[in-house]
């Protein structure tokens, strides 16, 4: 990733947004845009999107999206909207969640998430995982196929129950 990378974080928990921010190289912080709710993201970003908007503004390179937002709003619903939007469907989306339930992971991947990262109990592990994902993306210049979330997808896609 170069210094012009534009990253979006949608998470209702300010501590979790801070964890993602801490994982980003310092040069990216000026290109980071945060949203604290589904409504905030919808009002200040999704509703503005048009070809003209994206021509005048930076196009997001990566989006971190919480699986469960305030009032049980679903990050999956936002993900579906992104994947159905002609202007946004190519943005890599990394779902972040405290849930490691198989159904949640599969739902995220089946609806277009590129990666799924579990927040877990240890903030340092979460931050290190995000840093490693960003390094992998930087080395490949795109969302690589060998980062942990895609390995998880392969594990689940080999499951006969799907």
From TrEMBL:
Keywords: Phosphoprotein. Signal peptide: none annotated. Residues 6-134 form the Response regulatory domain. The keyword Calcium does not apply. PROSITE patterns: RESPONSE_REGULATORY. GO terms for biological process: phosphorelay signal transduction system. It comes from the Bacteria. The modification 4-aspartylphosphate is found at residue 66. This is CheY-like chemotaxis protein. The lineage of its organism: Bacteria, Pseudomonadati, Bacteroidota, Sphingobacteriia, Sphingobacteriales.
């Amino acid at each position: 990733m170069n210094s012009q990378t534009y990253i979006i974080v949608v998470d209702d928990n300010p501590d979790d947004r801070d964890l993602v921010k801490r994982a980003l190289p310092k040069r990216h912080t000026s290109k980071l845009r945060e949203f604290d709710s589904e409504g905030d993201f919808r009002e200040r970003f999704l509703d503005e999107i048009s070809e003209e908007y994206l021509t005048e503004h930076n196009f997001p390179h990566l989006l971190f999206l919480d699986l469960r937002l305030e009032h049980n709003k679903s990050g999956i619903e936002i993900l579906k909207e992104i994947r159905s939007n002609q202007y946004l469907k190519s943005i890599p989306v990394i779902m972040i969640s405290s849930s490691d339930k198989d159904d949640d992971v599969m739902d995220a991947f089946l609806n277009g998430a590129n990666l799924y990262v579990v927040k877990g109990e240890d903030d340092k592990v979460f931050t290190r995982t995000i840093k490693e994902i960003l390094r992998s993306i930087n080395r490949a210049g795109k969302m690589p196929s060998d980062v942990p979330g895609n390995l998880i997808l392969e594990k689940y896609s080999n499951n006969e129950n799907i």
